[in-house]
């Protein structure tokens, strides 16, 4: 975890480790609130992550994360995102559930229900994460998620504006 949200029981990390080579592919790991920031996911994707693993504890009011943020991070980086969310109640806080798997185009592949313990099995072709090119209308509307970037303009993002 490199960002702290409401959790004041942890110390934020000083580096962003990974991604890591595993028998199934190259994976990066973010924790919970880290997902709210686009930069860590992008940094891991630029380093070759094919999938992001996200252990998280979304409170019941945080439907923004499974509904929009997880899908956005996957699609803007062209990688899989697999989130394992806490479910039920603990120490007076109620958690959403809704563990999920999102594909490189932001498509929802699998999702547990709210307040549901579940094991999600996903057949994911991690090679799809290697292709950053998106063709909407051949020869007319084609984009490349990484080649079209303009890091020369992004200085304030990395320098803290």
Walk across the major sheet and give the strand order: 1-2-3-4-7-8
- Based on the structure given, which CATH architecture of the domain at 20-130 is correct? 4-Layer Sandwich
| Helix and strand pattern | EEHEHEEEEEEEH
Radius of gyration: 16 Å
Average pLDDT across residues? 91
Low-confidence stretches: none
What structural class should be given to the helix and strand makeup? alpha+beta
CATH homologous superfamily designation of the domain at 20-130: Carbon-nitrogen hydrolase
Assess the beta-strand content as a share of residues: 25-35%
Question: Topology, pairings included?
Answer:
Layout: E1 20-22, E2 25-29, H1 38-46, E3 51-56, H2 64-77, E4 80-85, E5 87-90, E6 93-96, E7 100-102, E8 108-111, E9 133-137, E10 141-144, H3 155-159
Parallel strand pairs: 2-3, 3-4
Antiparallel strand pairs: 1-2, 4-7, 5-6, 7-8, 9-10
């Amino acid at each position: 975890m490199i960002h702290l949200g409401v959790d004041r029981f942890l110390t934020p990390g000083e580096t962003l480790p990974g991604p890591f080579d595993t028998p199934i592919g190259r994976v990066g790991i973010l924790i919970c609130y880290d997902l709210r920031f686009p930069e860590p996911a992008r940094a891991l994707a630029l380093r070759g992550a094919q999938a992001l693993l996200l252990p998280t504890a979304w409170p019941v009011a945080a439907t923004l994360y499974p509904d929009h943020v997880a899908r956005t991070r996957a699609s803007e980086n062209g990688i899989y995102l697999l989130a394992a969310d806490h479910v039920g109640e603990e120490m007076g806080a109620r958690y959403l559930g809704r563990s999920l798997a999102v594909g490189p185009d932001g498509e929802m592949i699998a999702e547990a229900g709210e307040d549901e313990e579940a094991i999600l099995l996903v057949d994911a072709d991690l090679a799809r994460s290697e292709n950053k090119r998106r063709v909407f209308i051949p020869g007319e509307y084609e984009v490349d998620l990484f080649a079209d970037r303009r890091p020369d303009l992004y200085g304030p993002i990395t320098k803290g504006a």
